[in-house]
Amino acid sequence: MKNDMDSKNMTITAQHDRSARPYHHGPALAGILGPAFVAAVAYVDPGNVAANITSGARYGYLLVWVLVLANCMSVLIQYQSAKLGIVTGKSLPEILGERLGDAGRFMFFMQAEVIAIATDLAEVIGGAIALKLLFGLPLFVGGCIIGAVSTVLLIFEKGATHRIFEKLIIGLLLVITFGFIAGLFIAPPNPKEVVAGLIPRFKGTDTVLMATSMLGATVMPHAIYLHSTLVNDHYAPGEAKPSIKKLLHGSKIDVAWALILAGSVNLALLILAANSLYGMTGTDTIEGAQRAIQHVLGPVIGTIFSIGLLASSLSSTSVGTYAGSEIMHGLLRIKAPMWACRVVTLVPALVVLWFANNPTEALIVGQVVLSVGIPFAIIPLMRYTHDRTLMGEHVDGPVKHIVNIAVAALIVALNVVLIVLTMLGKA
User: Given a cut of 50, is residue 10 above it in pLDDT?
Assistant: First the structure.
């Protein structure tokens, strides 16, 4: 009897202790995953396709190391953005909006909006090209279809339906992965040549410009702004959240897996071009690259490639518009309707599709613009995650801050090189 009573007392005591403790344990780890995969879509947009295929076709495996380096940096940067959002409960644009004056907020918004337009330019053009390859549609008509479908996807981006939005985007990400990696199974590359491409080197100013363009396509400024929002939008209003410690742990895993996937897709694109298209003429456009892939690897792989391109356009343009909306909200404190944000970034892309003779060139230029915009996102991010008044006990330590500064300095240096080359007419 005594043992029974002791057991009951222990049970009651344990129950009391559990009820008395504050809530620290949220859903399982799987429930935390998702925001990084949405952000990662930005890293596999049509701009990546253009930049990576062009690099592989022109220079073979020479710039493999650029993609590996950029992907490692993107893991660090995206986690820092997620960390800022988790700890503060605010997005990077919101914190910027609180700390800048009226003129500063407006100027910062203008450069960020240019970045959003450059982003959508690449994504809409890529989708229009994909529809032309698949169904023979005119580029302008294809751009209008991409704009309409992506707007429908954006209906789910807020509130209780946000998880649906995440699942739709992740589903498209899987289609992208299959679409762009399939060719490697048909024509496997030489592992030794791939490994040789990991040695950092350039061959002339053209390769420096290409490396910078690839960097702009890989480390995405709008994804940096958005990730700090995604980690909070992941939970519906009033929904219980796990502890900050658990969220940070889950976010590390989320970012690592998402960007390993995105990085693999980017590497696959470059390696596919280096292995199957190197030295071939006419591969400096997406259409030409697709025709070359179809010629070398067969019509099935060519069609799968086009489907992957279409999926990358639909997903990344939706995410890009989402980012533009959050940038406007945070910096200007204006909550514009999503359709209005969609129109602002869509119209320039449609104008280019109507007038441009070679839209792929616009993709490459767009990636260079993105590259120039990176410091404006990364420098404030590194500063704020090292600010104890904002981050409290989760502030970056000295060693991590030094690493962050080194990453930011490298990115800024590459952009200075790009600007100098452009001014000298060598880019």
Answer: no
Tokens of 236: 């519906």
The pTM score is: 0.86
Answer whether residue 2 shows pLDDT above 80. no
Q: Each residue of 86-138: pLDDT tens digit?
A: 999 999 999 999 999 989 899 999 988 888 888 888 889 889 999 999 999 99
Q: pLDDT (tens digit, 9 = 90+) per residue, 232-262?
A: 999 888 788 899 999 999 999 999 999 999 9
Per this entry, what is the length of the chain?
427
Which amino acid is it at 160? A
Could you tell me the domains of the chain?
Answer: 28-423 (1.20.1740.10)
Report the distance separating Cα 35 and Cα 347, nearest Å.
28
Given a contact cutoff of 8 angstroms between Cβ atoms, the answer to whether 124 and 313 are in contact is yes
Query: Burial of 205 by CB count in 10 Å (0-12 exposed, 13-18 middle, 19+ buried)?
Result: middle
Look at the alpha carbons of 131, 135, 139, 141 in this order and tell me if their dihedral is positive or negative.
negative
Could you tell me the pLDDT band of residue 1, with boundaries at 50, 70 and 90?
Answer: very low
**Cα-based distances in Å from 308 to 72, 74, 105, 364, 366:** 24, 22, 37, 19, 20
- Report whether 42 contacts 223 (CB < 8 A): yes
